[in-house]
Amino acid sequence: MGQNAKNNSKIGLLFSDSFWYYQFFNENPSWKIFPLRYELLTKEKLENLDYIVICNKRQIFYNFDKSKNLLTNNKIDFKMFKYFELVYKVETNYNIYPLLEKKYEFENPVNFYIFKNKSSL
Fold it and tell me: 10-120 maps to which CATH number?
């Protein structure tokens, strides 16, 4: 990211609750970092971002409402990002939750997909 993202870039992070990789994005303090919830994304929100960084193909997060399902599992449809171009795919060997991996088809190794807004190219 540091080689390509310009100053004041708006970067959306689509991570599960259990992943806290924000420290890797502190390379440039002028970047504006936005944590995103997949089911709340709109075309307008996406158009305002320069980059989207997605961790794995699912977003898993804890529900703190009155629902009985404590974990929410959203499979990410990459077709939603038609105005973005995949510029990087980074694999890590970091496996955090082997039990969730089986239940939610979690990826191992963990994959990061970095998309750039086509209008920024």
Answer: 3.40.190
